[in-house]
Amino acid sequence: MQSKPQLLVWLTCDGVHIDPASGKHTILGVFSNIKAREFPVVHPYMVWFMTLTDVSTGKHEVKISMGLDHTQMKELIRRNFESQSPLHRINLINELGNLQFPQPGEYSILIEVDDEHILATSMTVSN
Asked: How does DSSP classify residue 71?
């Protein structure tokens, strides 16, 4: 029996720089909520950075959905990635542009790997 993928890091930030010489990731502008003067609001650009481990060798799919109500989630990201070994740590940089928030509230975020839930979290959007 193989283990479930584990999420080691989940960050919302302004950007990620990867040093070409060392391969190190520098995380820029970490934040956990959004403030707006009026709604609806469009956030121009953000990155959801995640690090996974315990992912079985081979090809996989990550899906990230968000919604104001957990029963009405909208898929924002669906992408394939590959694991060389369950021992590896896999960094995924998920860029989102022009993300719309129709009203203030606590927006649910659901992360799945191969249709298995690995994290349910939220982001507060307020005025």
From this structure: T
What CATH number should be reported for the domain holding residue 85?
A: 2.60.40.10
| Residue whose C-alpha is closest to residue 124's, from 1, 26, 12 | 12
Q: How many CB atoms lie within 10 A of CB 53?
A: 17
- Distance, in Å, from the CA atom of 122 to the CA atom of 107, rounded to the nearest integer, reads 5
Give this prediction's pTM: 0.93
Residue 105 counted as domain residue:
yes
Low-confidence ranges of the chain (pLDDT < 70): 1-2
Return the residue matching tokens 């719309």.
100
pLDDT tens per residue, range 44-70: 999 999 999 999 999 999 999 999 987
**Distance (Å, whole) CA 72 – CA 108:** 10
